Model the fold of this input.
Amino acid sequence: MKARIQADIRQFIISTWLSGDERGFADDTDLYQAGVLDSFAMLALVGFLDDCFKIQLEPPDMNPVAFRCVETVAQLVMEKLANSGVAAEPIKNLAIG
Done:
């Protein structure tokens, strides 16, 4: 389950901000240090997570630690899904590609 969530998040990031070029991008790449995420990109990623996984993030969830890399974002999604009782599969695959 977590691998599928990570793959969907990674694909969204690669197609949205990296022009489809995944060279040098791994699930543990720091999204801030790599220049992928800023405050506007974070909001777009939050929107993707809401649309794809039907989770609602609260302001305390949206922090640099939780959004550091694909792995930490996927962990946050898993926690939100577990707390909501929803299966950890995307409702609809919105990944562009």
Observations:
- The chain has three helices and no strands.
